Amino acid sequence: MTRAIAARQYVSDVAVLARKDARLELRSRDTVPAMLLFVVVALVVFHFAVPADLSEETERIVSFGLLWVALLFTAILGLTRAFVAEREQRLIDALVLAPCDRSAIWLAKTIAVVAFLLLAELIALPAFALFFEPVDAPTIAAILLANIGIAAVGTVLSAVSAASRTRELLLPLLLLPLAIPIIVGGIGASVTDEPAQFLAFLALYDAVFAIISWSTFEYVVTE
Amino acid sequence: MSLRNNLGPTFALVAFTFLIAAFALAFYWVPTDADQGFSQRIFYVHVPLALTAYACFAWGAWKALRLLWTNDNKYDLESYTAVHMGVIFGILVLVTGAIWARISWGVWWSWGERQLVLFLILFLFYCAYFMLRNSVDIGPRQARMSAVYALFGVVLIPISFLAIRLSENFIHPVVFTRDGPQMAASMFFVFCLSTVGTIALATALYHVELSGKRLDLKLKQRRKAYS
Fold first, then answer.
1. Which ipTM value was assigned to this complex?
2. What are the structural domain ranges in chain B?
């Protein structure tokens, strides 16, 4: 019985914290518009990086590769802002002192980051379909899975870089090596004939890194 | 002096003996590989180095886990030193791998060699580990953040290996493999000798670096106390 109450408390903590992030974003409108603009600009820049006379198959692989790189960089752009409010207003100290499980902070922030990413992708995918290639179901499934992985790992690393002297400079360096498997899984699901194994790989990545991020976040934010 | 203080020299002696024996046997006793000829002998250096680097990363992650578990800051230096050793041996893996690739295939780098690609990813990952350490103020929080990142690293190793294997489905098929014929017994024996020697070398260096770092820390603390 007490366990059920604790679980309900945990869920409501997460909901409150996630709502706080959504409300902050609605009021300031800092992050999501920047992500939307960035992903479209990145796709346009990438168009000029690809030669025009590729074979159909190569062009498909290259365009989906560019889509995944653009999405990853957009996610990094959003993640660099993830803990700015907490840091500048010293909110993180209050959150750590609050009588809730600290992993709830991580879960709420991850949910918020996934939501921002979904908004960015709502613009990015139609733009990609317009400029490059039509988007199929495996790609969308892979993007949904990749969002979770990037947000889970990225939230921990964003908290780390927010506490460092170099701030936003550190996050891409920390995150990119960890994001290589996501890129592999995503591009594989987009361009190969058997996307199932790549989707399974992305799900494995999500599960493994969500567990380790969930359990280690506490050590990153406490003084 | 207790045995504990003598660990460094002891391991150094073991490493020296085993490595000399392994190299002597590798050059004069083991039969030349039928496929690759003389150059295959770099195998007795390259693969033990790779195994040692993995062992160092795993040791660093284990110490990181201990640190988070017990909240005892003494594990921080141990984890840091192990990762540092892992990166040094990782660089040697990349260098010997590049030499082997040059001799076997005529190129310094081949994306078709899974282990080398994995070591490149790990090298980049652990370089970021040092960036992280350097940009956070020294203290328990730096120790905990580094420990968390070291734990991410040891999870990344199998995941990346899987990712590299999967990526061959759409990037390019494997053209070269080193999985040649079965290893002869003599080859395996020398390989084991060399592996033990290399791991002993890493352990000796680990102890030397660790005692240096501990001394440095103690000196800093004393200096702070007197000033």
1. 0.90
2. 41-172
